[in-house]
Amino acid sequence: MNDDAQLRLMARIARMYHERGIKQSEIAAELHVSQPRVSRLLKRAADEGIVRTVVTLPAGTFTNLEEEIEARYGMDECVVVDAGEDETTVENALAAAAATYLETTLTGGDVIGLSSWSATWLAAIERLQPFRTQVASAVVQLFGGIGNPTVQVKATRMIDMLARATGAAPEFFPSPAVLGTPAAAAELRNDPSVIHILELLPQVTIALVGIGSLEPSALLRQSGNIFSDAGHEELRAAGAVGDVCLRYFDADGAHVDSAFDRRLVGADADQLRAIPRRVAAAGGKRKHSAIHAALRGGWVNVLITDAATARALLDDQSSAA
Questions:
Q1: CA-based nearest residue to 141, from 127, 128, 154
Q2: pTM over 0.85
Q3: Among 6, 52, 68, 312, which residue has the fewest nearby CB atoms (within 10 Å)?
């Protein structure tokens, strides 16, 4: 068969298969050629550009944004959801996406570390349906959780709900997050009940965290685990732009060492960044700079965020540095 005839046959087979949906075996019978030849010509049609595959993304999916952020920041995974500009709307959308992420990625054998003062993760866990089988052995509170009694119940309930849903044992952090002095924090770290939790941290395989801006969230403010105005100014003067589990970092993502940092009881910066899968659910305009810095500093390697934040992360020219 000459080249022109071969091209005509290849084009005809390609149209029958891709446009009309005819099976390869039926094409072979209709055109009186072998099925292996039909298969070879379809492959050649793709190789030579006669057939081009185009993926049309459904509304509300942002695969291109996700892949660009993963490449730009060296992320393991990015999940981008459609949300408006309102902070409450963004939080609800992120919570729904975070719940779905847990449902699809917790498959067994994990030790989960949890930031107990994240409103987004609290809302996500409230949406989570119990797994049919055990998918985690323990849920470990990553830093001190004792605070205002009227708010403390939220942190306790959060750990308990996730443990029940995953079939895990809850491990509560038996101390405040912030002590009055570095000496008091150092002394509490030597308490046997606190040592027990700290010794569990190297076993954590997945951390569920928020990314905070320098201005504390409403839930954290209510908890009582916050710093004085002087501490706030100290962090600002040191260049802090955000935090993960109250470990603050600057615009480049570098950990900010401070007197406040030494008053904390919980996972330190190195322990947090050593956890294999570090999942942040965070978004909204107020947190753009903090999220950008957290990605640059490697504080998280999985990000669940909104489309507007994703575009801001890609538009920031400094993110390419």
A1: 154
A2: no
A3: 52
